[in-house]
Write a structure and sequence with these properties.
Helix content is about 50%, strand content about 15%. The chain has ten helices and nine strands. It has a seven-stranded mixed beta sheet, with helices on both faces. The longest helix is centred in the N-terminal third of the chain and has 20 residues, at about 35-55. The chain is elongated, with a radius of gyration of 19 Å.
Length: about 240
């Protein structure tokens, strides 16, 4: 068996870190803003996802999407920023954000349990190579993964099915023996199922303790935690 994981929002939690960075921007520049904090926070998340999706689609570089999210946020407040000022404000956000990125509490246990059973563990992640590998090092989990598939390094991003084809080639495994664990229906679960992988949809918004079996071949299981993902996987070892 080979188990591939997504990284962001699956193994690593950056929501709190993101909120810390957004708060720092808001507090520093609130005299300029027309939004209250909750509106600013929710709008930032929408803008950030949109610019990241444009990066994933090859429309922006990684650095461009970082600056552009700031430019667009302040445009929402009728403020025009030049590139230098946008970069300055992004670095304020990043310096705070970087301090808060961490593993989810249930991340290490599933990786250790799989390793103890000699299960091959891989990673499939969209994003910038340097940034994603920095997260793996910060979380001290890089040693668990072989292969590591990062969109920036292979030139294609999820939900493109070619990502999963490359992952299987590098792992030397077959669809039938492979599982994929991710948190996004659009970028993880739907394309992985279409490709023919067994999937576990990590939906932390479910009622605590939920483990749902949606289909058998390929398997489609929905769980509330990585502890329950391990429980589901262990039944197939």
């Amino acid at each position: 068996m080979t188990v591939f994981f997504d990284l962001d929002r699956t193994l690593m939690d950056f929501e709190n870190a993101e909120d810390m960075g957004i708060k720092a921007i808001f507090e520093t520049y609130k005299s300029e803003l027309k939004m209250d904090y909750e509106t600013f926070r929710s709008t930032w998340k929408v803008v950030a996802q949109k610019t990241f999706d444009e990066y994933s689609a090859g429309k922006l570089t990684f650095d461009q999407q970082r600056r552009l999210r700031v430019v667009r946020m302040f445009e929402e407040n009728l403020i025009k920023l030049d590139e230098e000022e946008a970069a300055k404000r992004f670095h304020l956000y990043w310096n705070i954000y970087a301090q808060g990125v961490e593993n989810f509490p249930d991340t290490l246990s599933i990786l250790e349990n799989l390793k103890a059973k000699n299960v091959q563990i891989g990673l499939i992640s969209n994003g910038d190579s340097k940034n994603q590998r920095w997260k793996l090092d910060k979380g001290k989990i890089v040693q668990f993964f072989d292969p590591i598939i990062i969109s920036d390094e292979i030139g294609v991003s999820k939900p493109n099915l070619r990502v999963f084809e490359i992952a299987l080639e590098k792992a030397g495994t077959s669809k039938e023996e492979c599982w994929y664990v991710g948190d996004s229906l659009v970028h993880d679960i739907e394309p992985a199922l279409k490709f023919g992988l067994n999937v576990i949809y990590l939906n932390r918004k479910l009622e605590e303790g939920s483990l749902l079996h949606h289909q058998e071949k390929p398997a489609y299981i929905e769980v509330q935690s990585l502890d329950l993902a391990w429980q589901a996987l262990s039944m197939h070892l």
